[in-house]
């Protein structure tokens, strides 16, 4: 008797569902992408209990005829590929023909669709066709999925909490909204609205809907192109960052993708402008010929391969670095208003201190809480939205004003020091606070980076050679990289099996702690090990040296030294951040100061 037999279709679909339908957000993803491929301009997603009880996706797309509506649930049935050649030029979000039969095999499905004439209603339970009926003539499709995983208890048991499922769906909807700003997206859970975009094809407005006004105000418009790629999007100012890489959104031909190398390049472009453990908010739309990419790697279609990845990485890195290099990156102090006071019109147009609105997914979802219904003043809402739009518009006008290098750090005049650490300066625009340690770190860092990159370094002989003893393994690693030390004008000799003899060192090495600096440099050389990179080595040594020899907190500095520090800082390529990404300077406008003392808005207050 034959042992090999053809698998039952429903069983095969359940197995496929294990890859395609991992959780509630997987269902939302597949259905929303189908709506986009159908040309919808409005897509509404309604959830009950984070999608575990019901997911309903409503669109105004082209709809389907009865025959297509039934065939759509057959495995590998698709309207998006007709030949093998099409596989190499995919321009739709879906194409595998696996999603609908997989979803239908593990849930109860009702599909209502119409092309504008008599509609069709298809009912399927657990992969079995129950009924095909006539429906209404509303053009578009309504896809209802109830009781997901009801017939696969193991999968149902391992669903995460309702909050986690809702957060995952919200995260997906945020990203798909960012990738298609021309489509109006609405997401609600248990009747409570979570996301609502206007579909105006204005990417910055969509960013505002997702992240809030304060983040949208501090986004910088970027663009670049070459023979193969066209890039457009927004990147956040370095002061706006998150704890997760999840907010670096890359979109390729309308598809949100995951690519670790692109994320690494984006993050590296912010190097020394923010803390290393934090990540910027970035939305980049990449347009490329479909023949240069491969999305047919994983059923989720989020992983992607580029045929010219190195070219794309260089284009992105140069674009971001160049844009940030031309910006005034001094963060402004965040003040919370205790009450409203009348503001002059010019203040309304340049208002920068609004309370930050975090994206929904970073808050505890309120969807499961019973909320009292409160009447909404629509005139107030419309007025507030109009004010926010004006603030956003003015903010973007300011962001477009790029400054030349010598004017990036404005001229300022020191007037004192607080706690022996923070230098107080002023000019006609307001007040500046400078962290003397961070500022000196930046000045030192750029000095050492320049010296280490200079092939004509002068060396200095030591009166008494320094012996550095190492373990056997450390000695082997250093011995392999002795050329690096010699290129820096160290004269190094092996002294037995486990020690080095340093006879000369580069002249830029600080004289107050020569031996300590040499030992630190050798430690960094050992830490780099087999993944050694001369660029990273130079950067780490410069960072270490800049911190070690910077002015310390509570260290007395006279006014002459302060003035020199400010001049040196203004000459830096990046005067705004220390090598660790902390700000060197914080700014308070004259309006901020007036507001703190309740002077703003009161013309007669003396």
Care to describe what's here?
- With 606 residues, the chain is of the alpha+beta class.
- The N and C termini lie far apart (102 Å).
- Strand 12 and strand 13 (255-257) form a beta hairpin.
- It folds into 4 domains: 9-196, Heat Shock Protein 90 (2-Layer Sandwich), CATH 3.30.565; 218-325, 2-Layer Sandwich (Ribosomal Protein S5, domain 2); 405-443 and 552-591, formyl-coa transferase, domain 3, CATH 3.30.1540.20; 458-507 and 511-548, Ribosomal Protein S8, Chain: A, domain 1 (2-Layer Sandwich).
- The strands form 6 sheets. The chain has an 8-stranded mixed beta sheet. Strands 9-10-15-12-13 form a 5-stranded mixed beta sheet.
- The chain is built from 19 helices and 24 strands.
- It is elongated, with a radius of gyration of 30 Å.
- Helix 13 (436-452) packs across helix 18 (559-570).
Q: Tags for this entry?
A:
Heat Shock Protein 90, 23% strand, 24 strands, five-stranded mixed beta sheet, formyl-coa transferase, domain 3, 35% helix, alpha+beta, 606 residues, 4 domains, 19 helices, disordered C terminus, eight-stranded mixed beta sheet, Ribosomal Protein S5, domain 2
Secondary-structure map:
Layout: H1 9-20, H2 24-37, E1 42-48, E2 54-59, H3 66-71, H4 99-105, E3 108-114, E4 119-125, E5 128-135, E6 140-146, H5 153-157, H6 162-179, E7 184-189, E8 192-196, H7 203-211, H8 213-217, E9 219-225, E10 229-236, E11 241-242, E12 248-252, E13 255-257, H9 260-268, E14 279-280, E15 282-288, E16 293-294, E17 305-306, H10 309-325, H11 345-350, H12 378-399, E18 413-418, E19 422-427, E20 430-435, H13 436-452, E21 459-469, H14 472-480, H15 482-487, E22 491-494, E23 499-506, H16 514-528, H17 534-548, H18 559-570, E24 585-589, H19 590-596
Parallel strand pairs: 1-7, 12-15
Antiparallel strand pairs: 1-2, 2-6, 3-4, 3-6, 4-5, 7-8, 9-10, 10-15, 11-14, 12-13, 16-17, 18-19, 19-20, 20-24, 21-23, 22-23
Helix pairs in contact: 1-4, 2-6, 6-7, 9-10, 13-17, 13-18, 16-17
């Amino acid at each position: 008797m034959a042992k090999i037999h053809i698998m039952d279709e429903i069983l095969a679909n359940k197995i496929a569902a294990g890859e395609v339908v991992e959780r509630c957000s997987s269902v939302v993803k597949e259905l929303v992408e189908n709506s986009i491929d159908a040309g919808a301009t409005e897509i509404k997603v309604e959830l009950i209990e984070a999608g575990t009880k019901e997911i309903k996706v409503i669109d105004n797309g082209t709809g389907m005829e009865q025959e297509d509506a039934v065939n759509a649930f057959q495995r590998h049935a698709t309207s998006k590929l007709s030949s093998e050649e099409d596989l190499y030029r995919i321009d739709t979000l879906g194409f595998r023909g696996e999603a609908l039969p997989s979803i239908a095999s593990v849930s109860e499905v009702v599909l209502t669709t119409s092309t504008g004439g008599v509609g069709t209603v298809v009912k399927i339970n657990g992969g079995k066709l129950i009924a095909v009926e006539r429906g209404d003539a509303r053009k578009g499709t309504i896809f209802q999925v109830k009781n997901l995983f009801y017939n696969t208890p193991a999968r149902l048991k391992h669903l995460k909490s309702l909050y986690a499922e809702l957060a995952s769906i919200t995260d997906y909807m945020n990203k798909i909204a960012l990738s298609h700003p021309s489509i109006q997206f609405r997401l609600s859970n248990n009747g409570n609205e979570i996301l609502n975009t206007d579909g105006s094809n204005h990417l910055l407005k969509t960013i505002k809907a997702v992240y809030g006004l304060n983040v949208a105000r501090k986004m910088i418009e970027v663009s670049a192109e070459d023979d193969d790629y066209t890039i457009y999007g927004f990147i956040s100012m370095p002061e706006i960052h998150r704890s997760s890489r999840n907010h670096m959104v890359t979109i390729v031909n309308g598809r949100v993708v995951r690519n670790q190398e692109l994320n690494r390049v984006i993050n590296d472009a912010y190097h020394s402008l923010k803390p290393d453990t934090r990540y910027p908010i970035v939305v980049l739309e990449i347009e490329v010929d479909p023949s240069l990419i491969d999305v047919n790697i994983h059923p989720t279609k989020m992983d992607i391969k580029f045929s010219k990845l190195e070219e794309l990485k260089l284009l992105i890195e140069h674009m971001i670095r160049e844009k940030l290099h031309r910006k005034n990156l001094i963060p402004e102090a965040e003040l919370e208003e205790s009450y409203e006071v009348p503001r002059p019109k010019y203040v309304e147009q340049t208002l920068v201190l609004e309370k930050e609105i975090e994206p929904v997914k970073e808050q505890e979802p309120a969807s499961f809480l019973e909320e009292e219904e409160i009447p909404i003043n629509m005139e107030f809402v419309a007025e507030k939205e109009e004010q926010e739009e004006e603030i956003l518009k003015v903010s973007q006008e300011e962001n477009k004003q790029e400054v030349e290098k010598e004017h990036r750090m404005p001229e300022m005049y020191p007037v004192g020091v607080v706690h022996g650490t923070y230098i107080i300066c002023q000019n006609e625009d307001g007040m500046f606070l400078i962290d003397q340690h961070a500022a000196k770190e930046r000045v030192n860092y750029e000095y050492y980076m320049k010296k280490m990159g200079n092939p004509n370094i002068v060396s200095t002989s030591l009166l008494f050679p320094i012996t550095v003893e190492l373990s056997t393994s450390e000695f082997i690693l250093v011995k392999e990289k002795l050329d690096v030390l010699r290129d820096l004008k160290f004269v190094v000799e092996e002294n037995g099996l486990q020690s080095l003899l340093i006879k000369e060192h580069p002249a830029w090495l600080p004289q107050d702690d020569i031996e300590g600096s040499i030992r630190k440099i050798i430690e960094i050389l050992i830490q780099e090990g087999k993944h050694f990179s001369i660029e990273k080595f130079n950067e780490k040594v410069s960072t270490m040296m800049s911190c070690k020899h910077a002015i310390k907190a509570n260290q007395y500095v006279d006014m002459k030294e302060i003035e020199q520090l400010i001049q040196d800082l203004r000459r830096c390529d990046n005067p705004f951040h220390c090598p660790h990404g902390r700000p060197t300077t914080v700014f308070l406008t004259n309006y901020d100061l007036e507001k703190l003392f309740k002077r703003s808005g009161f013309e007669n207050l003396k």
